[in-house]
Specification:
Blueprint: H1 2-22, E1 29-35, H2 40-55, E2 62-68, H3 72-85, H4 88-91, E3 99-104, E4 110-115, H5 120-133
Parallel strand pairs: 1-2
Antiparallel strand pairs: 1-3, 3-4
Helix pairs in contact: 1-2, 2-5
């Protein structure tokens, strides 16, 4: 069951990243979601958190990107995407899993961070606060 939830959470994150990527040039915030298959917080909350983030990002102002810290191979794949977005250096010091890090898309400065274990309401507030901090 945990594996199924992990797979579903990953699929939701991929869908959210794909949708966000569509509006990449419009995004004012880049949210890097640090995840790993072995992370208990990710396994227990990933699917719910991704749904909450998606619900809070209907305006596509936030571009979500997965930073998969499961193993060296997934880290390398994630590093490519992070570099494309210019947040590879900014995220380097933040390696906690089960955490979303919100960066200003223009300056790459960290706006805030939140655990995916927080409530849907807290996740929505974090999205709204990140948008406001980026002057949306």
């Amino acid at each position: 069951m945990k594996k199924v939830k992990s797979i579903l959470a990953t699929m939701m994150l991929v869908a959210l990243v794909s949708i966000s990527g569509y509006a990449q040039n419009q995004a004012k915030v880049i949210a890097v979601i640090n995840k790993a298959d072995w992370c208990p917080a990710c396994q227990q909350n990933g699917e719910r958190a991704m749904a909450a983030f998606s619900e809070s990002n209907k305006d596509l102002a936030i571009q979500f990107v997965a930073n998969d810290l499961t193993n060296d191979e997934t880290k390398a794949k994630s590093a490519i995407e992070l570099k494309k977005l210019g947040v590879d250096k900014a995220i380097a010091e933040y390696n906690g899993t089960g955490v979303a890090y919100f960066f200003n898309a223009e300056t790459k400065a960290l706006i805030s961070q939140i655990s995916v274990a927080k409530s849907n309401e807290e996740l929505a507030l974090a999205c709204d606060a990140a948008k406001k901090a980026a002057k949306l």
